[in-house]
From TrEMBL:
Family annotation (Pfam families): Asn_synthase
InterPro entries reported for this sequence: Asn_synthase, Rossmann-like_a/b/a_fold
Protein's UniProt name: Asparagine synthase (Glutamine-hydrolysing)
Species: Micromonospora yangpuensis
Any GO MF annotation of the entry: asparagine synthase (glutamine-hydrolyzing) activity
GO biological process assignments: asparagine biosynthetic process
Domain (Asparagine synthetase): residue spans on this chain: 67-364
Amino acid sequence: MTDLSLARPTAQDVACGIVLGQDPAAGPLTARLSAAGPPAAGPPAVRPGPVPAPLVALEQAVLPALCRPPCLVSFSGGVDSALVLAIAARVARREGLPDPVPVTWRFTDAPRAQESDWQDRVIAELGLGRHWRILSAGEDLDLVGPVAARLLDRYGQLHPPNRHLHLPIIELARGGALLTGVGGDQILAGWRRRPGSLRARLSRLRHSVGRRAAREPDPFPWLRPRVARELRRRFRAERRAEPHRLAGRVAWHLGRRDLTMTRASLTAVAADHDVLAVTPLLDEGFAVALATHRGRWRSPSRRELLADLADADLPPLVVAPRRKATFDEVFFRAGTREFVHGWDGTGVDETLVDPAALRREWTAWPVCPRTAALVHQVWLASRPAGTGPAQPIMEVPR
């Protein structure tokens, strides 16, 4: 089995439901990206060779996956996965390689995860309908459902807690490759908030002070008070640390533990199934291209980044703004509700978590999504040995 040590959350990661901090091992990459970005003023530094445009760098990033068919693309219909699918389709046709195979989840009783309209439109625009594979899930992807059980039984606890979403797609890709849009929410999301006018900043400040004065509920009520205080302090510090300039921000995101662990778990589980997992939006060549050509941009929005990246080379539909789907309804289903309501209070690190407070949190429904890792922790602690294999996911006839 592939080494998964880089994908293991710490006890504090699990208890808090948030992974904070920078990965020390990413220091050399961060330094290279910082060096690639032009200075805030003056001409770009002289480099040993030409750096391709960001879109060309993305084309280069998807090529290794396309050269190992079948090349599946995890396609939700969102902007990031649509961008990767469109680039993969164009490169495959230009290079005479087999078309990529989009694989899409369709969920029952999860309206906020519904993206079928965008899925249909993008697939039609790219002419990939005959290759498209659609998987159906009701209770299947619950946090303690059959797919998650299969992954947890084999690999133990991984980050992120929804890693099992990709397991059936990886199994379909055995012997080939998998492309995903992982990292788009960080690299292409744009600055988390635009600076705005002085009046707007003062308005936000007044609003923030007013909220504190109203004593908003604790966002981590299941944690020991000292742990919650320290987490809030670290979270605020991390938000303040995000650089404004694009070159620095890309380097900062690629060095965050959250993203390095996410990539590590996907890569390791895929490799264990003889699948090459490629995350082109996290590719170093793409990051260097962004830093080199657009590194001076200060606080760009997601729309600005996507419009500049696609230019006239991709169908406008691919990068058109759309509602961001949310997937809590997919993972927190009847199985999780039944499990947490019957929890006996054991299996957590009581130096970090107050079991009584967590039990109170889990009596409400829906439960806080930040407790997903704790659900897995206590489920693993109570897991009986010798459990049989879960039922396979079925494709939807079209």
